[in-house]
């Protein structure tokens, strides 16, 4: 059974860790028999009426569990994980949705949260309609908004960037081949003008850290050409500027940006 576990708003400006790191730490303490398919960063609305720290993003872990009996334990583990690692001043939220949930309300809410201001009441209504776990764990509890939105966007399958995968994304060599990346389950897709098909033997510059997108419910590495038989991955990290981030509290704040 596949389960979506999303955290949001767990850190503050100047923190030594962000929500992205908290999600990755969570996947390292899963019960025996549970495995992580990936961790996806979802970008939410950046707007003056939405409190956030630096980028307004949430982190969703996609986990495979043996059966539904593991769901209560994941909820308890998620709450304990937040209690252990969140930063004072943040407004953490947690959402857990099994593949048996009604996903239409979640996807619709996620799409709204990416482009318009939404509220806690909107988030709770979506959770009730979908039949999923949604809980706040401190401060204003505004993190429930980003947590359920992150689940919806990830389940929708067409937005977000992988920050972790079953094959370590930073484990690829700086210069590898298209075939090696695709052997790991990541599809390599050209996004330049000619949209040629990369060959397995072509070289691929990973920019030292491959950053696949979630496209069509699968990890996809978009690349552009460097010349004959050579490609480079897009999405190299830029300087975040003013901090790593979680929510700042109040309104419809979403969370951390340590990605």
List keywords for this structure.
259 residues; alpha+beta; six-stranded antiparallel sheet; six-stranded mixed sheet; globular
Care to describe what's here?
- By secondary structure, the protein is of the alpha+beta class.
- The protein has two domains: 2-162, Alpha-Beta Plaits (2-Layer Sandwich), CATH 3.30.70; 172-233, no CATH class.
- The chain has six helices and twelve strands.
- The longest helix is centred in the N-terminal third of the chain and has 15 residues, at 71-85.
- The radius of gyration is 18 Å and the shape is globular.
- Residues 239-257 have low confidence and may be disordered.
The number of helices is 6
Q: Whole-number average pLDDT? A: 87
**Strand tally, please?**
12
* SSE pattern: EHEEHEHHEHEEHEEEEE
User: What is the CATH architecture annotation of the largest domain?
Assistant: 2-Layer Sandwich
* Strand order, largest beta sheet: 5-4-1-3-2-6
**What spatial form do the alpha-carbon principal axes imply?**
globular
**Any idea of the CATH topology of the largest domain?**
Alpha-Beta Plaits
- In the residues, how many domains can be counted? 2
Briefly note the structural class of the backbone: alpha+beta
């Amino acid at each position: 059974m596949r389960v979506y576990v999303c955290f949001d708003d767990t850190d503050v400006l100047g923190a030594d860790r962000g929500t992205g790191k908290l999600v990755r730490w969570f996947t390292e303490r899963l019960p025996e028999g549970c495995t992580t398919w990936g961790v996806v960063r979802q970008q939410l609305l950046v707007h003056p009426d939405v409190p956030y720290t630096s980028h307004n993003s949430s982190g969703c872990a996609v986990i495979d569990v043996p059966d539904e009996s593991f769901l209560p334990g994941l909820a308890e583990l998620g709450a304990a994980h937040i209690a252990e690692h969140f930063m004072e001043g943040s407004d953490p939220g947690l959402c857990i949705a099994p593949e048996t949930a009604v996903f239409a309300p979640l996807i619709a809410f996620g799409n709204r949260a990416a482009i318009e201001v939404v509220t806690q009441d909107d988030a709770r209504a979506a959770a009730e309609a979908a039949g999923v776990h949604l809980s706040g764990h401190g401060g204003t509890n505004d993190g429930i908004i980003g947590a359920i939105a992150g689940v919806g966007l990830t389940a929708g399958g067409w937005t977000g960037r992988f920050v972790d995968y079953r094959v370590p994304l930073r484990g690829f060599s700086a210069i590898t081949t298209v075939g090696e990346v695709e052997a790991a389950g990541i599809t390599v897709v050209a996004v330049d003008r000619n949209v040629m098909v990369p060959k397995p033997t072509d070289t691929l510059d990973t920019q030292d850290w491959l950053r696949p997108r979630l496209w069509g419910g699968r990890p996809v590495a978009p690349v552009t050409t460097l010349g004959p038989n050579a490609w480079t991955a897009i999405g190299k990290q830029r300087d975040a500027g003013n901090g790593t981030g979680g929510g700042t509290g109040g309104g419809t704040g979403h969370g951390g940006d340590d990605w």
